[in-house]
Amino acid sequence: MATNWREIGLAASLAERQVSTVQVDGQRLAVISRDGQFSVLSGVCNHAGGPLGDGQLEGDYVTCPWHYWKFHWRTGLGEPGYEDDAVPAYPSKVEDGRLFVDLKSGTRRSRAPHPPHPLARTPRREPGDVRVVAISTTSMTEGQPRFSTSDHLLQIAIAEAANVGCETRVIRLRDLKFRHCEGFYSKAAAACTWPCSITQMDPGDQLDRVYEAIVHWADVFLIATSIRWGSANSLYYKMIERMNCIQNQTTIANKELLRNKVAAFIITGGQDNVQAVAGQMLGFFAEVGCVFPQFPYVAHSRGWSAEDMENNVIEVRDSELLRAGAQALTDRCITMARALLQDQLPAFEYARGGRKGHPLDN
Ligand code: FES
């Protein structure tokens, strides 16, 4: 037997699964078994290094389990239209019931150019005064608007930002079509990519508006939610689960996508739990790298026993105190954001297991 041939294992065992991962001479390989035939491909996907051998055979193609790129089970070529994206395919043979691979005679890996997603550009603060995005997370029937207490206060807050000369944007999550987080991080840390894997795969997914505003455009995020059974609105959670990809870049790639960003919240509900909702929101936005003004939320609730929601709505609509509170919240955010832009506060760098860039280190 030529010395290039390396044993993989018992053919009968390998035939029990259509696709398996094996390690030979330190290389990760994908072994494919189909109709009594074997093939061996590199086990490393061209896209982001996903484990091809943990994928599945769909027709003539092995599908990567991370983001579903496909490679021909025999040739390693990408699916039709993507043939320039090829993973190495190695000769294999069965002798004496054992499968062998020739690692020195494989085809070459080739990568087709893939233009980066627009969100992948390095965040760079363009000159200009503070920019404020208002994000409404409340839901309501399409085409049948209702009075929302959280939206009402959010409108007051964002109008204040415009009044003091800031650029503003408003995003209503209920107007966007976007998918739930589908758990790429649960497959492997590196499978949760920036930009979000769903955003890169699905041009119809509209959460790119939120990513664009939060990562690239805004200095201040004003986020409004209703209270639903003691928690923030379900659309709020749908959004922040998709923002795992932002936090993940900090923890696995030491890359801070959010820096000098100020977050503040508007929380209203027919029943109470304001502090728990605020605690969750503060915790999440702290984890993605935001800072907060003093008194970082305004809230309203008439308590557990106030079942007369119509009066709740009237109270918020007519409250001068809440109006002034929403405006003051915006003013505090803008003051803080201006200070950050003028480098009047130090920037800290996240570092695992230690600290880096702390002003006291100088
Ligand atoms: S499709 Fe394989 S790593 Fe993304």
Structure characteristics:
362 residues, binds FE2/S2 (inorganic) cluster, elongated, six-stranded mixed sheet, alpha/beta, four-stranded antiparallel sheet
Q: How is this structure best described in words?
A:
It is a single chain. The protein is of the alpha/beta class and 362 residues long. 28% of the residues lie in helices and 23% in strands. It has 10 helices and 16 strands. It has helices spanning 11-14, 149-163, 184-187, 197-201, 208-217, 234-242, 244-253, 274-287, 309-318, 320-341, and strands spanning 5-10, 19-24, 27-34, 37-42, 56-58, 61-63, 70-72, 89-90, 92-95, 98-102, 131-136, 167-172, 220-228, 231-232, 262-269, 297-301. The strands form 4 sheets. Strands 11, 12, 13, 14, 15 and 16 form a 6-stranded mixed β-sheet that branches. A hairpin with a 2-residue loop joins β13 and β14 (231-232). α2 crosses α10 (320-341). The longest helix is centred in the C-terminal third of the chain and has 22 residues, at 320-341. It is elongated, with a radius of gyration of 26 Å. The termini are far apart. The mean pLDDT is 93.
Could you say which structural class the secondary elements and strand pairing correspond to? alpha/beta
List low-confidence stretches: none
Please give the number of β-strands. 16
Quote the beta fraction: 15-25%
Largest sheet: 6 strands, mixed
The radius of gyration is 26 Å
Helix content: 25-40%
Q: Roughly how many Å apart are the termini?
A: 64 Å
